Amino acid sequence: MKITLRPAIIGIFFSAASISSMAHSSTTFSIQSLTPDFSDLIDSHATPEVITRHAKWAEGPVCQADGLFVFSDVKANKVLSWSPQQGIKTWLSPSDFQNGHTIDAQGRIIAASHGKRAILRQDKDGQWTVLADRWQGKRLNSPNDVTVSPDGSIWFTDPTFGVLSKSEGYGGKVEQDGEYVYRYQPDENTLERMKTPGVHSPNGLAFSPDGRTLYISDTQLAHNFEDKSLRHQIMAYTVQGKTLNHGKLFAIVNPGIPDGIRTDRQGNVWSSSKEGIHVFSPQGRLLGKIFVPSQDTGNLAFCTDPNRQRWVYITAANLVLRVPVLTEGATASSAAPKP
Fold first, then answer.
1. How many CB atoms lie within 10 A of CB 226?
2. Other beta carbons within 10 Å of 47
């Protein structure tokens, strides 16, 4: 199924003409089912709704419990918010190059900040608290993605992309001896570096619905897209208490990299790619694709609104859009903008 996007009366949809000028993009949004199971996740006739096409580099989508959709415009050094009532607004500026976001059990936003080189939490008074910014006395690289496990611990990735990019951070010296995954325990204020053999440049994170598996995207290829030997895959690890074990290759994402990943209630893994979203079964079988008309797709988030309409929000370079789906996110924090 292919849809040529047309302007809506109130300007929510964007025109095919505006899309056609984008490099490496298609003028159509399309959904490709590779197995019958994919039709249980998204309607083949689902129509995308555009939130903005004016971001510099959109990342970190998340839905708050109060009904606000929030996402990072990393290269603009801002975080923006949206709801059907308010439209697009600046939520935080400067944002210290925040990238990934998640929601904790208390409904507070947890942010991965390239600029602060830290994991931050926005408290109820609106102030930001630094949760973790150093490992063994040395500054973190540039935390990229963050998620909360069922036990309340905060897991995050710390590649060097932000600290090495002049457009996505304040720069500085890399102090850690590599790129790692960390686990922060809020009630103990402790930080642990996780052992993830097989992962070179950790980026996206997602837990299975039961919390027993952690998926980690390895975007080593992003350090040099000309070197085809570099990794662009998703690894799966068994979670045993505070440790990860039995790491195995879950899926290879091609074209592009699995920048952001999320799981749905059925345990399927949704991953970004160069061409849009790839959806894998819990066994790693490719079920289908959502083709997004953009030069790249970076991240996604599941949200369910008060009318029980379920959406997947997608950040794709300068575009942010949402698509109705037939499933929900695996976490309990899938609140969404109110209609």
1. 6
2. 13
The residues near 75 (Cβ < 8 Å, ≥ 6 apart) are: 56, 57, 167, 168
Cross-strand pairs, 79: 72, 92
| Residue 74 DSSP symbol | G
Consecutive H or E run containing 293? none
Q: Which of 328, 325, 304, 302 is nearest to 313 (CA)?
A: 302
Q: Which amino acid is at 84?
A: P
CB atoms within 10 A of CB 140: 25
184: Cβ–Cβ under 8 A, 6 or more apart, which residues?
Answer: 119, 131, 132, 153, 154, 155, 156, 190, 191, 192
| Paired tokens of 40 | 């249980």
Given pLDDT bands bounded at 50, 70 and 90, which one contains residue 183? very high
Query: What would the pLDDT profile of 8-56 be if each residue is shown by its tens digit?
Result: 322 333 333 333 223 334 458 999 999 999 999 999 999 999 999 999 9
Q: Are 164 and 144 in contact (CB under 8 A)?
A: no
pLDDT band at 67 (very low <50, low <70, confident <90, very high): confident
Q: How big is the CA angle at 217 (ends 130 and 205), to the nearest 5 degrees?
A: 40
What is the rounded distance in angstroms from the CA atom of residue 140 to the CA atom of residue 202? 14
Q: Kindly report, residue by residue over 266-322, the tens digit of the pLDDT.
A: 999 999 999 999 999 999 999 999 999 999 999 999 998 877 889 999 999 999 999
Residue 313 tokens read as 């929000």
Measured in whole angstroms, the distance separating CA 150 from the mean position of its chain's CA atoms is 18
Cβ atoms of 295 and 276 closer than 8 Å: no
The rounded distance, in Å, linking the Cα atoms of 20 and 22 is 5
Span 47-72, average pLDDT? 94
Report how far residue 130's alpha carbon sits from residue 139's, in angstroms, rounded to the nearest whole number: 13
DSSP state of 17: H
